[in-house]
Each structure stands twice: as C-alpha cells, then as structure tokens.
Fold:
Amino acid sequence: MQVQATTKFTGISAQKTRLVLDEMRGRDAEEAIAVLGYMPQHAARVVSKTIASALANAVENFGLDAKDMYIAQIYANDAPIRKWRRFGARGRFKPWLRRSSHVTVVLEERILVESKPATTGKAASTRTASKPAGSK
Structure:
C-alpha cells in the first residue's frame, strides 16, 4: 500500500533539495530520518519532517508497521518564484529570484518473500556443468 505526504512552498530551491533527496531514495523510512539528522544541508530538515509525516500517516491512518516502510518515490517540484528587487548603483535594478519547492514522499510496505529450501535430492546432485569438447 502506498502512503504519501507533501510539504508545499518550502523556502529552498528544488535543485538544492534534490541533492538531499537523491541520497534517500530506496532507503527504509526510519533509517532515512536517522541519516538526515546528521546532514548539514538545510533541506535535510524539511525532507526529514516530510518523511516523518508520511510515516505517521502510515501508522495512524492505515495501521501499517513503521519498520516495514521504505521510500518508494521521493521528488521535489518547482513552486512559485518570488521576484525580489534590489536597487543597484546609478539607478540600476538588480532582480533576485527567490525559488521554492514542493517535496513529495511516497512510502510503500516492504514485503518479505520467504524462499523455499533447496532440494538436495538425486536430481540436484546429478547435474554437472561441463563444456563441450570443441568450445573455447
């Protein structure tokens, strides 16, 4: 089952946020929150809160186990750009673009598949890998 959380209008550009997101893709949710606590980027705090929110949604709303959740999808989209103005020397205009982003996290439950024990019968022991005489 997929569980989603979104943080909108973060004050960090999508390009800077994607640097953090690329490190988290595919990890267990609890492990990702632990790793983000030690990252120096400002975006790590925002991403950590979003993952924690998605994890809380999974546990509270759907009754899933937090230890089984992993990050299936995580991405940052561009949000509206605020155009700020600075006045330069000699009457010039220096525009600043203040970029923001939307962070989305999709968690899925990791399903462990039990493997069947290997058969140790006569058929398994009679197979041999041998090359034909004429091959290299």
